[in-house]
């Protein structure tokens, strides 16, 4: 997420894959901090930084985090909206009109190895990969796309050494089928069967969709019975949905069946003090590599992607 008023006179362009993105980031509008999170005190111990909160009846921060590794991340034209691992490769979806794309990134170097730009009048949001198909939603365009990844021949490549040369003359195929939906699109993940989508709504709703994008069910994310708004980037693992809270440093762990928040972490301080960021360049992006079990986080135009481990707060 991270929004900007659309220029309705912009002409639609056919998406074409490029090695890197090549346009300039505009400034989006900002939204406020969720009302259910009120800072009280800041504690910092080594690489772990967290804030203790009152929560209008909730239990506050219940998860600590530890930084296990740091990797370069493109710090311009990489307005992260979605982050995902597939077959060992790091996929990233980005936003803004004229800049939105999804890309494959070499985790070791931070280099963009493959880029599929979407139409210039669309504002890209979350991505997820289910059964070899990449799904991408848009912010207020109310349309989602699907891409067949088989043409990229990922099984023939090494994620640790891949470069743009490995994708020369190869491309994903955008299927003719695209999906319309009501409301806004923010985050996207899947549980192996269903697509799971957030819209940032104040009512805390997350919807489960089938592969045709029809709604299967809806859950309401609550913390101490209060709905949680601004749910943004999503990652599913082992019966839980992990979600960024837009415009904050908070990540929540959600019971995927009940919608109840069962864990909260605050990642304030994960970037070195003095890191130059614009107001909209906030924490966003959670990905777990199923092959290694490692978890990674980053932010919009952040210079660094972090491997982290979450643990219960003592």
Task: Explain what this protein looks like in three dimensions.
By secondary structure, this protein is mainly beta. It has one domain: Lipocalin (Beta Barrel), CATH 2.40.128. The chain contains no helices and 24 strands. The chain has strands at residues 38-45, 48-54, 63-72, 80-86, 89-94, 101-105, 112-117, 124-130, 133-138, 143-148, 173-180, 188-190, 195-198, 205-209, 215-220, 222-223, 226-227, 231-237, 240-245, 250-255, 261-266, 283-288, 295-299, 304-312. A four-stranded antiparallel beta sheet has the order 3-24-23-22, with no helix packed on it. A hairpin with a 5-residue loop joins strand 20 (250-255) and strand 21 (261-266). It is globular. Residues 3-58 have low confidence and may be disordered.
**Strand line-up across the major sheet:** 3-24-23-22
Named at the architecture level, the CATH assignment is Beta Barrel
Helix content: under 10%
When the domains are counted, the total is: 1
């Amino acid at each position: 997420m991270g929004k900007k008023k659309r220029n309705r006179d912009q002409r639609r362009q056919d998406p074409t894959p490029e090695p890197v993105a090549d346009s300039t980031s505009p400034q989006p509008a900002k939204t406020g901090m969720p009302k259910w999170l009120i800072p009280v005190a800041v504690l910092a111990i080594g690489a772990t930084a967290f804030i203790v909160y009152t929560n209008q009846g909730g239990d506050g921060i219940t998860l600590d985090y530890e930084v296990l590794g740091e990797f370069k991340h493109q710090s311009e034209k990489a307005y992260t909206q979605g982050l995902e691992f597939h077959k060992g490769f790091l996929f990233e979806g980005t936003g803004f009109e004229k800049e939105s794309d999804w890309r494959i990134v070499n985790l070791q170097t931070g280099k963009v190895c493959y880029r599929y730009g979407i139409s210039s009048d669309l504002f890209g949001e979350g991505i997820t990969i289910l059964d070899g198909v990449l799904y991408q939603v848009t912010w207020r365009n109310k349309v989602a796309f699907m891409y067949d990844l088989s043409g990229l021949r990922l099984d023939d490549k090494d994620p640790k050494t891949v470069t743009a040369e490995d994708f020369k003359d190869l491309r994903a195929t955008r299927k003719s089928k695209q999906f319309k939906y009501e409301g806004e699109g923010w985050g996207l993940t899947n549980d192996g069967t269903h697509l799971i989508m957030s819209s940032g709504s104040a009512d805390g709703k997350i919807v489960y969709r089938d592969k045709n994008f029809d709604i299967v069910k809806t859950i309401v994310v609550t913390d101490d019975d209060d709905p949680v708004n601004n749910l943004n980037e999503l990652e599913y693992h082992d019966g839980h949905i992990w979600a960024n809270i837009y415009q904050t440093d908070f990540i929540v762990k959600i019971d995927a069946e009940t919608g109840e928040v069962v864990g909260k972490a605050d990642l304030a301080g994960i970037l070195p003090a003095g890191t130059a960021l614009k107001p909209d360049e906030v924490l966003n992006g959670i990905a777990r590599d199923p092959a290694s079990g490692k978890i990674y986080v980053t932010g919009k135009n952040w210079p660094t992607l972090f491997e982290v481990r979450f643990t219960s707060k003592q």
